[in-house]
Design a protein that fits this description.
This protein is an alpha/beta fold. The protein has two domains: 76 residues, no CATH class; 147 residues, von Willebrand factor, type A domain (Rossmann fold). 30% of the residues lie in helices and 15% in strands. Strand 4 and strand 5 form a beta hairpin. The protein starts with a strand and ends with a strand.
């Protein structure tokens, strides 16, 4: 529970007012003259404090009323965590595509690509689903969606990264456009047994040097699925 205007809670200090007023005995006001008073020395009444409450029920009612007023003005609210729970339950569907074509053999490029892949994998959440593909020449599966069923959620990133480090760039040319078309079709059609919705977060992460000459022709006439997002990491 939260409070929109928590400063009003300071008004609870007013709970002490009924107690103070109840305990303090005020000095009597007004004076009534009697003939016999002329023989007495004037002595004003002493102001005393009561040592106990005369009407406990009345005091509690007043205190409760002040408490309700203070809390009402503080505007309490309960946070709705249902949306967060749904997001956590469904997770994301992430397909990582790494370019292992000949251009990635240049000095420092492949280690940089692996470092970028490691950064992406370390951002996985417990209920995310992951697949990894290499895309030189044709799409080749490095890590399938189904493989993480056999592992704890926290081990998926490390296991996928170990698998990814076993491959090396070849001598093939890259067809980035064709790889992205296959990846988007695969991700758009992906379903599993976990709770999900049609608008579950589906992402393609492309890691490539985007060397000049990489074919993108397949994307020219392709209608990209609206629920699939593309993130490009250039190395």
């Amino acid at each position: 529970m939260g409070l929109l205007t928590p400063l009003y809670i300071a008004g609870l200090a007013a709970l002490s007012l009924p107690l103070v007023f109840h305990l303090i005995r005020r000095t009597p006001r007004g004076r009534e003259s009697f003939g016999s008073l002329m023989f007495l020395a004037p002595s004003p009444p002493r102001i005393t404090r009561r040592s106990r409450l005369d009407n406990v029920v009345l005091f509690l009612l007043r205190a409760a009323a002040l408490t309700l007023v203070a809390v009402a003005f503080a505007r309490p609210f309960f946070r709705d965590t249902s949306a967060l729970d749904v997001e956590t339950a469904t997770g994301r569907r992430i397909l990582l595509v790494i370019d292992d074509s000949a251009s990635m053999r240049r000095h420092g490029i492949w280690p940089a690509a692996l470092d970028e892949a490691e950064n992406v994998l370390h951002q996985l959440r417990p209920n995310d689903r992951l697949a990894v593909f290499a895309c030189a020449g044709s799409m080749r599966c490095v890590w399938a969606f189904d493989e993480q069923r056999q592992l704890p959620a926290t081990s998926t990133a490390a296991a996928a990264l170990r698998r990814l480090r076993t491959i090396r760039p070849g001598w093939s040319t890259s067809d980035i456009g064709g790889a992205l078309v296959q990846a988007s079709d695969m991700l758009d059609a992906f379903t599993d047994e976990r709770p999900t919705t049609d608008d579950a977060d589906r992402q393609i992460v492309l890691i490539s040097d985007l060397q000049e000459g990489a074919s993108l022709d397949a994307l020219q006439s392709y209608q990209w699925p609206g629920r699939v997002r593309l993130h490009v990491h250039r190395v």
